[in-house]
Each structure stands twice: as C-alpha cells, then as structure tokens.
Amino acid sequence: MQNRRGFDGDHRYMLTVSGLAKRYPHQGRVRTLFENLSFELGPAERLGVLGRNGQGKSTLIKILGGVLAPTNGAVRWNMRSSWPLGFSGGFQGGLTGVDNIRFLARIYDRPIAQLMESVEQFAELGESLTMPVKHYSTGMRARLAFGLSLAIEFDCYLIDEVISVGDVLFQEKCEQALFGKRADRAFVIASHDMNFMRQKCQRGIIIDNGQFWLLDDINEAVDLYTDICIQTEARRAADPLRA
C-alpha cells in the first residue's frame, strides 16, 4: 500500500528508489520486509522511516547506503550520500582509528591532515584513535563513524538512531552539526522517537509486517504508525501465540 509523491525539483540532484524489495529465509520460510517500494527524495527533503523492531527500518537504511543488496529493485543516487551514520561495519577492525581515517581520506580524496583534525575535534576519542577499532565499544565506533560522516560533506545523510550516541552534550553537538549547520541537506532518518520525527522530518514511510505506507505529511505518518502499534499490542494481548 502506498501513496506516491512526485518530485518537481531538479532531477539532477536526487535519490530515486524503484520497485525495492527485501526478502530473506527465516525458519524455513521466506520473510518479506517490503516489496515494490518506490519513492523520490530531492535536495533538502527529510524523510522519516518508521517501524517496530525487526520490521525493516535499518535494513532500508543499509540498502540505501549500499551496505546491503536488495532482493529486487534499484536505488539510484544523483547526489552524494553518506554511509548509514552509526554503522561501523565498513571499518577495518585490525586497523587503528587513525589508520581508518587515513584510508577513508584516500577513498574520498580528502587531505589526510584536515580530515584527521576534523574527526579528532568532533568525535572526542582522544588517544583511543591509536587503538585498533576492534577494541572500541559500540558507542566509540559510532562516534568515529559520526565524526567521519561530518568531516566529509554529503548532499544526503542516512541516519539510524545515531543521535542517541554519547552523553547529552555530545547528542546536542551532533544535532546542531546535522540539522543546524547542514539544514540545506537531504536526510533519511530511522528512529523510534516520534517527537524527534515530527520535528525533523517532512514525510514518512511506515514499514510493518511486510507492508509499507508512504505519506507526504510526517504527522499523518506518526499518527498512523501509532495506531498500527496499538493494534499490534491489542492482538498480542488477545492471542500471544499468533501476534
């Protein structure tokens, strides 16, 4: 089920998702997270991805970021996209934080010294940058990923709950760096925080039980998602074995 929205802006700078599907084997059966998902995202647009745990929010973000391959469909980027913020699978665990920064500097053709200084200042990892990343905590890896994502400028940022990384001051620092200094960028955001989604997003995709809903108003998306969660909990309470 979907409500598609056309994009009337400059098609040279946008994300186009066409007929996207993700299925995988689960307990001897094939589970479908979503199928025939299509949408467009233009410059400075903010799209929220809503869904209960395990329904496919993070999977969609990783597919958009090139981390996972879809079962069917295509993702076409005509603007520069970040990797999923907070996702650290792209790091080489045996290398130090410093060596990973150098590696990405070469990939993105950025001055190593400039990138190093930017990441050091933002991530606040100090001497931990000289440690192999495999010894980092989840939060430290996310800080490094976040610092790198902001050290390299992108047209669209993919976010999966990463604002929750670190203490309150660091979270505020992340939010200002993203939504203050980069207010003119596009965002695709997956989050369980509905107040955050209402404040930061314009549109919403809900993924639930193999279906999706694409709505042009984030408030309508949050309201519908809330209703879906209430109905799911009611079914679970009535019949725990089938919910």
Could you explain the architecture of this structure?
This protein has seven helices and nine strands, in the order E-E-E-H-E-E-H-H-H-E-H-E-H-E-E-H. Strand 6 (156-160), helix 5 and strand 7 form a beta-alpha-beta unit. 35% of the residues lie in helices and 26% in strands. Helix 2 (97-107) crosses helix 3. The protein has helices at 57-64, 97-107, 112-123, 138-151, 168-180, 194-200, 218-238; strands at residues 15-26, 29-41, 46-50, 72-77, 81-85, 156-160, 186-190, 203-208, 211-215. The model is unreliable at 1-8 (pLDDT under 50). It has 243 residues and is of the alpha/beta class. The strands form two sheets. A six-stranded mixed beta sheet has the order 5-6-7-3-8-9, with helices on both faces. Strands 2-1-4 form a three-stranded antiparallel beta sheet, with helices on one face. The two termini are 21 Å apart.
Considering the chains and any ligands shown, give keywords for the structure.
26% strand; globular; three-stranded antiparallel sheet; 9 strands; disordered N terminus; 243 residues; 35% helix; alpha/beta
